[in-house]
Design a protein that fits this description.
Layout lengths: L16 E2 L8 E5 L3 E4 L6 E5 L2 E5 L6 E3 L10 E3 L5 E3 L3 E8 L12 E7 L14 E3 L5 E4 L2 E2 L1 E2 L8 E2 L3 E2 L12
Parallel strand pairs: 1-16
Antiparallel strand pairs: 2-5, 3-4, 3-12, 5-6, 7-9, 8-9, 9-10, 10-11, 12-13, 14-15
Length: 176
C-alpha cells in the first residue's frame, strides 16, 4: 500500500523484513546474530558480539549497537565532533575510532566514526554506552555478510540482504 508522499515499499521475500513495517517511534530489538566491525576490509577487529541491539525505524535500515564491553580496548577515543540530539534516543556522543591496543601500527584515527548514547531517553535505556559504528567508515558484517552503508551519510543504517526498502537517506528522500 502506497503511503502519501512515500515510495512504494519493495516486497519482502522469505527471511526478509521491509523497513516500511518498522515502527515510528523506533523499536529497540536484541539480536544474537554475529556482528563484527573491523578497521577496514581484512583489518584489525574492533568489535565482535552476539549481544547487539538493532534500532528499527520506519524507512531506515537497522542501526546496530554493540555493548561497550564487546569493543576492543583502545579502539574508542572521545571525539571533538559536536554532539547531536535524536528526538527518540537523546544526546549522542561521538567517538574517533582506531586500531585496538596491541594491533601494531598506528593508522590515523577515523574522526567521529562511531557514536553512543551515554544517557539515553527511558525508552532506549538498555543501549546506554553501547556503540554504533558508521558502516560508511568501517568494515562491518552481520553473520559474515558484508554490511553496506545507508545512502546519504547522515544516518548510520546497516543494509544487509535481509532488509528491503527503499531506504531514506539518498537524494530526494529527506521528506519521507
Amino acid at each position: 500500500m502506497r503511503r502519501a508522499g512515500h515510495p512504494e515499499p519493495l516486497p519482502a521475500g522469505p527471511g526478509q523484513e521491509s523497513v516500511w513495517d518498522y515502527p515510528r517511534p523506533p523499536a529497540l530489538v536484541r539480536s544474537d546474530r554475529l556482528v563484527e566491525v573491523r578497521l577496514g576490509p581484512g583489518g584489525p577487529l574492533l568489535a565482535q558480539t552476539r549481544r547487539a541491539w538493532r534500532v528499527l525505524e520506519t524507512s531506515h535500515p537497522p542501526t546496530w549497537y554493540v555493548p561497550r564491553e564487546d569493543v576492543a580496548a583502545g579502539v574508542l577515543v572521545r571525539s571533538d565532533a559536536a554532539a547531536t540530539t535524536c528526538e527518540w534516543k537523546g544526546r549522542a556522543t561521538y567517538w574517533d575510532v582506531g586500531a585496538p591496543a596491541g594491533a601494531g601500527g598506528s593508522p590515523a584515527r577515523l574522526h567521529a566514526a562511531a557514536w553512543s548514547y551515554e544517557d539515553p531517553t527511558a525508552r532506549f535505556r538498555e543501549v546506554a554506552g553501547a556503540v554504533a559504528f558508521a558502516p560508511s567508515r568501517v568494515a562491518a558484517s552481520v553473520d559474515g555478510e558484508v554490511v553496506r552503508p545507508q545512502e546519504g551519510g547522515f544516518y548510520g543504517g546497516w543494509v544487509t540482504d535481509d532488509v528491503v526498502g527503499p531506504f531514506k537517506g539518498g537524494p530526494g528522500t529527506w521528506g519521507w
